[in-house]
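Page 42, continued from yesterday. The earlier attempt failed because a stray header line got pasted into the input along with the sequence. Redoing it now with the clean sequence only.
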Amino acid sequence: MNTRAPVSARLRSRRSAAAVMAAALAAAGLVVVTQGAVPAAHAEPAWGPCPETVTTPSAVCTSVSVPVDYSVPDGDRIEVTVSRFPVRDPAAKRGVLFGNAGGPGGDSLTYFDDNELFTWPQALRDEWDLIGVQPRGLAHAGPLQCAPLDPADSVMLATNLGGAHRAACEQGSGDYWRHLTTENTARDWEEVRRALGQERISIHGLSYGTLLGSTYATLFPQHTDKLVMDSGANPDWMWNDVLLQQSEPYKRRVLAMFDWIAANDAAYGLGDTPLKVYQRWSQRVMAEAGTTPTLAPPPARIGDVPPEWAALAQQYMDGVTLTGPLRAQLEGLFNQLRTPGAMQSNSPMLAATRGLAPQSTAWPVIAESLRDGTPLGPQDPQMPEPPQEAIIAANMQATVLCNENRVPPRPLDYPAFLWTQFVTGDIFDAIGLTYSSGAACAGAGPVTTPVEVHNAGLATAPLLINSVGDPQTPYSGALGLAERMGAHVLTVEGGDHGQVAKGNAIVDDAVVQYLRTGHTDVAHAPAPPMPVAG
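This time it went through. Structure tokens are written below.
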């Protein structure tokens, strides 16, 4: 799961699932729907200006009317906004490429913008119309509006979070919430394809977008040309297992970031071993939250051995490494006893560390903040009200996850959820446990059975790309999606989330070759270039 929101919004999204939902649901209103005849299937779209969030000057936007409920096609409708980045060389045009930014809840109108994280291959801009279809439930596509929840209601958060959220959306948008599903969003794509007059579309989906793209290809194989799945989401994990499967990979990814910072000690001066960097980071969390993080520290290295222990260096390192996880837990509890009300989840640095860990290009942000003492995000633990679009996205994501949750909860995880959510505030474990325990969707059972994605006779085998250390879409889960879809797998070293348009020429060239020919022999690529320390 991934979004391409601004850094500030990404940081907000990395707090625990319950806290995110409680803090973000602050809107009220009604979804605007219209009634009337179904529009002509091939009406020429009227292209015009895009929302100001789209930054590419040549981009144009339109809207396509789609049914709220596909079982009642002549009932209520919503307008789904579509962005188009016109092909730069019309004589070389090969077709259209639909893109989805992940999430669910990622803004797809801006997906093909170049920014500080993504620079799309020039060949894509030269040879394809790049199309972003805003997912239903988001701003500019029948936004889901929900009344606010009370973040201080711990009983509700612990026992009826899903039910309370669903009731809040019922209050704001009627029963619209029940129509926010991956299948319906895929059917919206089909309506857009028809409106554009295209016989077939190619697809580039990121993270959750791989599931959406696979759903479209399963439902409409005859209209699917090429399918690129960038950082694959395992459909068998939807949804209680997705965030649980991320927990340990996120921890490893943070330690990899500390390793990189230590390797660049000349630039940052935070310590020449990962453990020394961790200690500086822990001090910052303590200063912000009144307690230390319970994330287990990295293994000790020779540079961590005091001179007086030089003769027993290995024993010292083994002892520090062995006792590190327990010491982190005990130190955190001691600090909480000493400072009543202290919670590590109130640390902006802790949230930023988890939020930025998947993207190595963002690691200097953490290192520079630790070095210079500059703030990351709000320093007041009471987060300011997020932008309206972020509120809508949080509502939409929570709704989709519960609407189509296919994984039964694990009641044995519930005590650990309570402990990490309400006692330690450990966001590295609490997020996954909120879902695996069943707390996130308590009182909100699934309303649909997701499409069983598979290769339904696609003319061209899909291409799946994933890094071996990706914390958001773990490699093992991505292989499960590849097997279902009969995809060729391109394995990338490192652990970044999202591989295309990230400066890795081998990956970008392979994707262009695949979209042109339906084939690539590339099966392995190195990690993208690491950021320059400074």
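Notes: The CA atoms of residues 107 and 521 lie 32 Å apart.
Reminder to self: strip header lines before submitting.
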